[in-house]
Amino acid sequence: MSNGTLGLICAFSFVILEAGQAVFFGRVFQDYDSFLIGAAVFGFTALGALTWTGIRAADELRTAWGNGAALFGLNLSTAFVWIAYFFALQMIEPAVVFTIFSGLIPVAILVAWALGVPEASPLRNRTEGAGLLIIVIGVGYLAAITILGRSGFVRGDWTVALTGLLLTCISGASLAAMMIYSQRLNRLGVSPIAQYGLRFPLYVAVALAGASLGFDEKGPVDPGGLMIVVLIGFVIMAFPVFAMQKAISLMSTLTLAAITALGPLFVFLFQILEGRVDYAPATMTGLIIYFTGAILAAYGGAKSSDRSVVHT
Question: Where do the TM regions start and end (predicted)?
Fold first, then answer.
C-alpha cells in the first residue's frame, strides 16, 4: 500500500470517527466535565505512547527534546485548538463553530505556504482551488449571519458573536499550526506515536486547571460512570486523533486539511441518519455552500495524494 493510499485511509478514518463521535456519542459526554474527560483520555493515552516510545525508540524522544521550539509549538497549538474551540461553543451555534473551524484549516495552511513555511503546501490542482474558494465563501457567509443574528444561536449581542468567531478562527489556525509542527518533527525522525505522546502535556495541564476551576462543572461526579466514559473516550476520542497524527506523516498538510474540511458534511449526514437535523434556514444555506466546496477540495486533494512528497 502506498503512502498516499494509507494516508487517505487514516485521514478519512479521522473525519468519519470524529463526526460519529460528535453525533452518536455526544450525549454520553454531556453529563461530565469536558475538561476532566479530555485530561483523562489524552493524559493516559499520551503516557502510554511515551512509555512505548521510551522503551522502543528512546532516540526519538531525544530528537524531539533537541528541537524544543517545534515541540513547544506542537504543545501550544494543541492546547489552543481545544480550549478556544470549547469557549467558542459556549457563544455561538455549534454547527457554525465546527464548520468555520474545519474550513479555516486548509486556508491557514495556504497562508502559511504563502509566508514561506516549508511544511505547508500549495494548491495541487484547479479542483482543489475551486473547492477552497467555495469553502471561503461559505465560511464568510456563516460568519456574516452569525454577527447579524440570523444563525440558530448566539449567547448575546454582536460582540459575543464576534468573540465566538475569533475564538473559532484561533482554533482552526491552531490545528493548522499543529499539522505543520507535526510534519516538521516527522521529517526529523519523530514517529507519529511519539508525537502523540509529546503533544498533550500542556493541554492536559490546562484541562486539569480548567476542571479544578469548574469551567464546565456538571455537578457531582459518579466515579463509575466517569470511568466508563473515559474508556469509551479511548476509542472514539484518542484513536481518531492518532489516525490524524499518522496521516500527517503520510501526506501533504494541505491535502489532509482539505479532507479534514469534510467533517461538517459527515456530521450532517450522520444527523440525518439519527433523525435530528434542525438548523436555522440561514445556517442551512451556508452549510450547503460549504459542503459543495468541501467535496470539491477533498476530491482535488485526494487525486494528488499519491504525488505528495512526505519524508517518513
Answer: 32-52, 64-89, 95-117, 129-148, 160-181, 193-213, 225-242, 254-273, 279-299
| DSSP tag of 93 | -
CA–CA distance, 164 with 155 (Å, rounded to integer): 9
Q: What is the pLDDT of residues 3-20, one digit of tens each?
A: 888 999 999 999 999 898
SS3 state at 133: helix
Please give the Cα distance from 263 to 265 (Å, whole number): 5
Are 92 and 154 a contacting pair, CB within 8 Å?
Answer: yes
Are 312 and 11 in contact, with CB atoms under 8 Å apart?
no
Nearest to 136 by CA among 100, 169, 161, 82: 100
Angle at alpha carbon of residue 97, lines to 91 and 98, rounded to 5°:
145
129 Cα distance to chain centroid: 21
Which H or E run includes 291? helix 281-303
CA 48 to chain centre: 22
Distance CA 264, CA 94 (A): 11
Q: Could you give the percent of the chain with pLDDT greater than 90? A: 73
Contact 134, 292 (CB under 8 A): yes
Cβ–Cβ contacts within 10 Å for residue 257, how many?
Answer: 30
